[in-house]
Amino acid sequence: MDKPAYTVLVAEDNPGDVLLVRRTLLKANFSHVLQIVVDGEAAIAYLAGEGDYADRARFPLPSLLLLDLKMPRKSGFDVLEWLQQQMVPRLAVVVLTTSTKNEDIERAYALGAKAYLVKPITLERFMKALETLELS
Question: Are residues 17 and 68 in contact, defined by beta-carbon separation less than 8 angstroms?
């Protein structure tokens, strides 16, 4: 059974990882609008609806944010800290990173991440994480 359509914002500076996320979502039969930003500053602008992302018809608020921690301009942690101060309705954040450091994992969860996945991710692990989220 297909899932309902929703918007996924991918904040990832590595084109290869973006491609893997796109393929994983396709394999999982998720109907979605996929939006890509390449750094934390653009992720914040998108979520705030500012600048190039002001048109919510073209750039709708996401239900899911797939967030890399290590990005240029602003990090994934900067984005998580910004989100804590905002009223972004029904946004689930899944961290996708290469970091296995306990302090990064603990900090991400403390800042509101709903799941923390270490790259490379498998379809099974990704699906298991998504199943625990209530996406709208």
Answer: yes
Mean pLDDT per 10-residue run, the chain (136 residues)? 71 91 79 90 97 94 94 95 87 93 97 92 80 66
Q: Are 124 and 105 in contact (CB under 8 A)?
A: no
CATH no. for residue 45? 3.40.50.2300
pTM for this model (two decimals): 0.89
CB-CB contact of 43 with 88 (8 Å): no
> How many residues are present in the chain?
136
CB atoms within 10 A of CB 117: 17
Task: Let me know: does 80 contact 93? Beta carbons within 8 Å.
Answer: yes
Q: Domain for residue 88, yes or no?
A: yes
Kindly state whether residue 136 falls inside one of the protein's structural domains: no
Tell me how many domains the chain contains: 1
